[in-house]
Amino acid sequence: MITTDLTRMFGLEHPIVLAPMGGVTGGALAAAVANAGALGLVGGGYGDADWLRTELTIVRKRASGPWGVGLITWSASRAVLEQVLAAGPHAVMLSFGDPRPLGALVKAAGCRLICQAQDLASAALAREAGADLVVAQGTEGGGHGGQRGTLALVPAIVDAVAPIPVLAAGGIADGRGLAAALLLGAQGALIGTRFYASDEALGPARARERIVAASGDDTRRTRVFDIVRGYDWPAPYTGRALANAFLARWQGREGALAQALPGEAKLFFGAQRAEDFDTAMVWAGEAVDLIHDVLPAAQLVERIAADAERALRAGAALCG
């Protein structure tokens, strides 16, 4: 068993945290990860109160281990955060924006605060917010993120925010990635796309099938899917998704896409309902190369943890 500051903080068996993927990480997936000895986070996304009410009820009923909720900082309101805190999570994760205003409410509630950072400036804000954990998110990850690579960013943030524990994120999908994160000075890994391809993940089975079939070369960072959905994401955040025909048509022509709304939006949302992923997006990270199957979340947790321990022991043997 691997023991770190993360596992001690929450009483976990494994230094693994489920990334709070909006629309994907519901209560069932968060509970399955928590029950397997890791930290499960519900993906609160943009803060839909009705969706949260349903998923928080599920995780509270099913989880026997620690769980939490992730919110998009620039979109979350005080009312949504209060709804989340009322459910009694062990942690709240804030990502993409200044975490200090909402972070103060999390700390005042006696809840653990996790802040995600994509560069040293956002890591400094996390420290000012009183973060109990800082996530160093590399650009290889699926969904929204910044521009810096995981390998260089993680140790830089470890040094910058010490002694606050750091989690690594971005391009981690197996035990080798977790072991590498620990050797970079992180106390665990936040993992997303690998858990998208799990039995408990929300969303269409066709999306999971595309992840299993994809290569990391098939992913792109883009603003196209935010524009067509009407989300005004602040700079410098873009989203990494699997390339498709819609993206090929509009990448580099974002201004023209904005002018073509609402016709293109009608096309896009119709494709979402029809599960037509030649138009609708599938958020996914570069680590899709390492994903070859859809499995129960508990099995993924156990496999990643066991493979990480083997990798660490093999690495230590190199020093013999």
Q: Rounded to an integer, what's the Rg over CA atoms?
A: 18 Å
Shape: globular
CATH domain class name of the largest domain: Alpha Beta
Which fold does the CATH topology of the largest domain refer to?
Answer: TIM Barrel
Strand order of the largest sheet: 1-9-8-6-5-4-3-2
How big a fraction of the residues is strand? Answer: 15-25%
Order of helices and strands: HEHEHEHEHEHEEHEHEHHEHEHHHH
- Assign the structural class, choosing from mainly alpha, mainly beta, alpha/beta, alpha+beta, or little secondary structure: alpha/beta
Q: How many DSSP-defined strands?
A: 11
* Total number of helices: 15
Report the biggest beta sheet as strand number plus sense, adding barrel if it closes.
8 strands, parallel
Assigned CATH architecture of the largest domain: Alpha-Beta Barrel
Task: Explain how this protein is built.
The chain has 320 residues and is of the alpha/beta class. The protein folds into 2 domains: 5-202 and 293-317, Aldolase class I (TIM Barrel); 205-286, no CATH class. It contains 15 helices and 11 strands. It has helices spanning 5-10, 27-35, 49-62, 78-86, 100-108, 120-128, 150-161, 175-183, 193-196, 205-213, 224-229, 245-250, 254-260, 263-274, 297-317; strands at 16-18, 40-43, 67-72, 91-95, 112-117, 133-137, 143-145, 166-169, 189-191, 219-222, 238-242. The chain has an 8-stranded parallel sheet. Helix 8 (175-183) crosses helix 15. The chain is globular, with a radius of gyration of 18 Å. The model has no long low-confidence stretch (mean pLDDT 97).
